[in-house]
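subagent[fold] <- orchestrator: predict structure for attached chain, return tokens only, no commentary.
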Amino acid sequence: MTYGTEKVGPNRFREVLGRDYEDFQVGHIYEHRPGRTLLQADNTWFTLLTMNTHPVHFDLNYAAEAEFKKPLMNSTLTLAVVTGMSVSDTSHRAIANLGWDKIRLIAPVFDGDTLYAESEVLSKRPSKSRPGQGIVTIRTSGINQHDQPVITFERSFLIAQRASSTGD
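subagent[fold] -> orchestrator:
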């Protein structure tokens, strides 16, 4: 089931997020909304939390002398946010995230940039070792407010098949 609600009682409904294995179709593209505006506060907290000590992320004077003349958003913050934006639509019902591949940082991200994301289904197959489950691989792109791609990556996750599924 994709986005929607399910009735859980009289006059009571619960939001349903994510997709089952059968809902994924190779070639489908899912646009993830809302966007997320990144702020310098996000960048500073994330950089310090992850112990990344490169001053281009949080030292204004240092950054002013660097190539872009202003602080860069931490690239792993960009990866984390764009991944997170895709979760409710793609892997919200996943059993396990299996990994990232082919991460490409295409353009810098700065304070005040708003990111949007979309994911294309690249492949899916039933799991060989886990009956009733399948592996889905998607390519996710992060795009800024100027419609410029800033990051792309592939991600695979293990997800349950519906009980009535014969697998495909």
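orchestrator: received. Logging for downstream: Strands lie at 4-9, 12-16, 29-37, 94-105, 114-126, 133-144, 149-160. Helices lie at 40-49, 60-65, 75-87.
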